[in-house]
Amino acid sequence: MRIVFCDDDTAVMDKLEKYLRAYFSENKLKQPEYEAFTSGEELLKSDKRIDIAFLDVEMPGLDGITVGAKLKARFPYVKIIILTSFLDYLDEAMRFHVFRYLSRPLEKSRLYRNMKEALYQISIDTKPVLIETANESVTRFADEVIMVEADKHKVKVFAVDKIRTPTRDSLSP
Fold first, then answer.
1. Which one is the CATH code of 2-125: 3.40.1050.10, 3.40.50.2300, 3.40.50.10140, 3.40.225.10?
2. Is the peptide bond before 105 cis (omega within 30 degrees of 0)?
3. d(C-alpha 156, C-alpha 14), whole Å
4. What per-residue confidence (pLDDT) applies to 89?
5. What residues does CATH 3.40.50.2300 cover in the chain?
6. What is the mean pLDDT of each run of 10 residues along the chain (173 residues)?
7. Which residue in 75, 72, 61, 59 sits closest to 12, CA to CA?
């Protein structure tokens, strides 16, 4: 797991990382990889996968809303949390489905609640589903499976790329 911070105020990022390290430690979870960026341009140059991004809205250069939209386009499962003193940008953030919009000063208990929800959502979004047919065995994420249809003894799995008919032996009760 990789968590990034993008804020022109390094003190805010240091405090946020301290809180998150404590959260993962208190919950006996493996510490994720953390990385801090002081500009949106710097963050967007990184090609590493991002699971959670904490973004400030008002920064020199690219603002957090623009950066968030670009990250969401590159990493559809990323959970973007806007952390700002400005509430005026909420509508813009909602356009790219921001996960949360947290106001400053940051409340530790609110951060913890939202981290718990973000981690839960990531686990659901990225849950792999194995589909085995007579000719192939493929894995799709849960959100790539549109529906499963059962008709008598035939099952069809409708995924975003194609319809598959799993073998009877691959279906577990």
1. 3.40.50.2300
2. yes
3. 50
4. 66
5. 2-125
6. 95 96 97 96 94 93 92 92 78 76 90 96 81 82 81 82 72 45
7. 59
